[in-house]
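Structure tokens please, single chain.
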Amino acid sequence: MFNIDALWYNQAMKQRNPFPYSSDNKRYHTFNHYLRTTFHSKVFKVPVDAGFTCPNRDGTCASTGCSFCSARGSGDMIIRGTLENQIQEGMKVMRNKWPDGLSMLYFQAYTNTHDTLENLKKLYDPYFEDERFVSISIATRADCLDDEKIAYFKEKAKQKDLWFEIGLQSVHESTNELINRAHPTQLVFDVVKKCHDAGIKVCLHIINGLPYESSDMMMETAHQVANSHVDALKIHMFHVLKHTLEAHRYKKDPYPLLSMEEFVEIVIDQLEILPPEMVIERLSGDGLESDLIAPLWTLRKVDLLNHIDKEMVRRATYQGIKYEK
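Here you go.
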């Protein structure tokens, strides 16, 4: 599938890209394109760990966490230290790459609205006034966004570009029970609708290759996302990481994982049915190499993204080509 002649590919890429939401020859709506057209500049994320936990870990709704989640709540690559130290060091790293870039503050680790509204105000109010950031992104869960919190963030969204990142993973309750997501799928879409009505943008996370899911099941997840009020999507490949519940399950009874070729095919099929206006923030996930058990091909991130680009050109396809509202 991927033995594509380099000369043919280079010539094909020089042809006019049929996808309208692109400034870098991609055939899907990249986050970079959204940010550059919104802020007229490169915008980089500064990820931080604000010291939250998760209702799926502290006993609020469960105590073991999602089966695939790492010990640092998906914040494994965040610089350690106080919150301000994380910000300063993170910005220093990014400024080395993009000296003139603007900053988005990304509260990444764990569930960043899992606290009282009073404490959330003390944390977030100063950063919505902080001129270092043009946008703020908050990773959370649907079961930690009640009406009172959404009303508060509705007002914050009038001050600054605001995103919630919410884990959906799969629309199939059998899968979510297996991975211990610990809240129903309909709650996610209900909260997405409330955020949409409040003027808060939402990026959902889905995972391809979850244990025992078929390609049809993964496509059904994409179909439901396509028909929701979601502004953006992150598509991840399922990882088996050390020191997780999934690592114990996989070691005891290994189950099939997607190959890179299978993942690329499914991702492109999903992109085809998503609305072209929907921003695609990610088409891969990052796990620490030292913690990754399988699949090892996910370490080849650049290779994966290149394969997706080339295959979309070969198939003469693009995001939204099969979208039906």
